[in-house]
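Re: How this chain folds, sequence and tokenised backbone to follow
How to read it: Take the token row as a discrete description of the fold.
Start of record: The labelled sequence and token lines come straight after this line.
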Amino acid sequence: MPAGYSLEAEGRDRLVLRRADGSAACAFAFSAFGPTPDAVRQAAEEDHLRRRARGLAGDEETGRGG
């Protein structure tokens, strides 16, 4: 997973992938068939690449999030 991303439980049935600035990158419904570690990693990497392509990646380290 790219640096700065974290996974957080929200309520009893939702997992939220968060960026370093605290904004949500993706949400997953939690169930017996919930997201695999690979699915979470892939979502984080895709978000990171999209943000980098838009010139937003890296801002988390400086606290300027976008």
